[in-house]
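Sequence and fold
=================
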Amino acid sequence: MKRRRSGFTLIELLTVIVIIGLLATIALVRFWGIKERSYRVSIKNDLKTAALQQERYFESNMSYAGDVTGLPDFNTSAGVTVTVTWSGTAGWAATFVGPAPAGIAGPATTAGIITCDE
């Protein structure tokens, strides 16, 4: 008389574990991409806000602010740091760094154009 076995074989269990591992890897890769894009969007929004605040400051003082973080309506996003590298009556330049790996951005090439290299 044969005994009936209940349960899964080792091969079946290993197959399920491999499939779950592959699905988890795909999900993590997609999540990391979404998270990095959200950091870039945060930096771009902070760049636009800084430009607006610098123009408001210029209207009152006829010079650009040396530190945008001290302006009344400027708050950076979480994890984003802003450093003004140059300011004066002719314009301003700043470095925006976020928690995502940052690319190397070149200097501005056209006056009045706000850009952000990705």
